[in-house]
Design brief:
Elements: H1 2-25, E1 29-34, E2 38-40, E3 44-54, E4 59-60, E5 67-69, E6 72-77, E7 81-85, E8 90-101, E9 105-109, E10 113-116, E11 119-122, E12 126-131, H2 156-185, E13 189-194, H3 201-214, H4 216-221, H5 223-242, H6 251-259, H7 264-283, H8 289-306, E14 320-325, H9 329-360
Parallel strand pairs: 2-12
Antiparallel strand pairs: 1-3, 3-8, 4-10, 5-6, 6-8, 7-8, 9-12, 10-11, 13-14
Length: about 350
């Protein structure tokens, strides 16, 4: 009989011992504390509610309204602060309540009730003593009456915004008046274009040849490019001087055209230049350096022999041209839109200035 009783006792102890970790793991603690037990009327205190539970448990915090008890008002409820403990197995949740009171008394603050897995848990109750402000009624002469109104001088900081906004409004008004006059007058838009006077054909050609002559690298290393530029200068000169499209003609066609109106001796030297250029461009001919120089001199001689000097009594070409353009419908719409935008901006600025003046007064 005793042996059987001992066995049962050991079995019960074993079951309790095996269940202890589970009970500890599911333990829930609720605590509430207040940072001040005594207040003057109108002062504030903070109540901290702490709940400790397992991370897998479901918690529902208490629903607190605008008062805890009659005479104690709730001013603010902070968001819950959660801390993970024991490598994420436990949670510690804190929530603060800011309270105040305007009636002197000793208040009993009931426990806070939370629900953990739909099971209620309560904190301890709290007490709060609220005192009224002490007043010395025996010495009323110590009371101070209301202060008189004190005039405060206006500083630049007070009126700086008003000043700059007023200046901006005046500037926008001037711009709006100018745009209104332009829109009303509908005068054409006048543009002046500078024109570079065109050089005589022989002057331009001699300048281009001088540039080619100065490029020694071109003459020595790239004869094809050298003769291409030289003949292009001559073709351009002939087109402007003689009036035929030399740029679209072959070398033989150019020579035949020139033979009709020019000295055959000068054409013979020019013919040698074009033949050399054709050999260089199409037959990969490599002329000697003195041959290149001679052809350049022949080109200069041809230009000098055929040039026509400008008439000194001729009226000089204008260097500036005045162009009048009528304002388009799109331009008028842009002016009108700008006027509307400026008008709106002036109204807004006027409102801000008026508001600033009113606040100063």
């Amino acid at each position: 009989m005793n042996i059987k009783h001992i066995s049962k006792t050991l079995a019960v102890i074993g079951l309790l011992w095996m269940g202890m970790p589970k009970a500890n793991a599911q333990q829930v603690t609720v605590d509430a504390k207040i940072d001040s037990l005594q207040l003057l009327i109108g002062e504030q205190a903070k109540i901290t509610l702490e709940v400790s539970l397992d991370a897998n448990q479901k918690l529902q915090m208490p629903m607190v309204l605008d008062t805890l008890v009659r005479g104690v008002e709730v001013l603010d409820i902070a968001k819950p602060d959660t801390q993970m403990l024991n490598e994420g197995k436990r949670m510690l949740i804190e929530q603060q309540y800011t309270i105040t009171s305007f009636d002197s008394a000793l208040y009993y603050l009931p426990p806070f009730e939370v629900l953990v897995n739909d099971q209620p848990y309560r904190s301890k109750a709290l007490a709060l003593k609220v005192y009224s402000v002490p007043v010395d009624t025996l010495h009323p002469e110590n009371f101070f009456g209301p202060k008189s109104i004190r005039e405060v001088s206006i500083t630049w900081q007070d009126i700086s915004n008003i000043f700059w906004l007023t200046l901006l409004m005046v500037a926008l008004g001037g711009l709006g008046y100018y745009l209104y006059k332009r829109l009303k007058d509908n005068k054409p838009i006048i543009r002046k274009v500078k024109v570079e006077p065109k050089l005589p054909p022989h002057t331009q050609a001699l300048q281009d040849i001088e540039r080619i002559k100065g490029d020694k690298h071109l003459r020595m290393t790239d004869p094809k490019a050298y003769y291409t530029e030289l003949t292009d200068v001559l073709r351009t000169y002939m087109a402007e001087r003689f009036g035929f499209n030399a740029m679209e003609m072959t070398s033989s066609e150019i020579i035949d055209k020139l033979l009709e109106t020019n000295d055959k001796e000068s054409i013979r030297e020019l013919k040698f230049l074009f033949e050399t250029a054709d050999l260089v461009k199409f037959a990969k001919h490599s002329p000697m350096m003195n041959e290149n120089d001679m052809n350049l001199v022949n080109a200069v001689d041809f230009i000098n022999n055929t040039k026509v000097e400008p008439d000194p009594n001729a009226k000089p070409e204008p260097t500036e041209i005045t162009i009048e353009e009528k304002r388009s419908k799109q331009g008028r719409m842009v002016l009108l839109g700008s006027l509307i935008a400026i008008g709106i901006a002036i109204v807004v600025i006027l409102f801000l200035v008026s508001k600033g003046i009113y606040n100063l007064i």
